[in-house]
Amino acid sequence: MAVVTFVTHDGKQHEAPLVEGQSLMKVATENAVPGIDGDCGGEAACGTCPVIVDPRWSETVGRSGAVEEEMLAMNPEREPTSRLSCQMDVSAAWDGLIVQTPEFQM
Description:
By secondary structure, the protein is α+β, with helices and mostly antiparallel strands. The chain has a single domain (3-100), classed as Roll (Ubiquitin-like (UB roll)). Helix content is 17%, strand content 20%. The protein is built from three helices and five strands, in the order ββαβααββ. A five-stranded mixed beta sheet has the order 2-1-5-3-4. It starts with a strand and ends in a 6-residue tail after the last strand.
């Protein structure tokens, strides 16, 4: 089974099974990953599902789109590889993906 590792700001790791076709936010919320709330249900409208993609995975998971960029631009903790997990559709090729959750959500 393919898995993703969410690393919280305090260094705790939470592994979750990847379900192809689901958003990474859905994977996180279904597995009670701390720091991922997904208040808007995946509409890229709230900023409560940010992750920082390990730079080694940036090419594989892709870059953010225009709508995502608007929301990310308001986040003071934004990193070059920040993404909204609601806008990341999981692929089996992501097995082993590592993302960090920021200390604060918007």
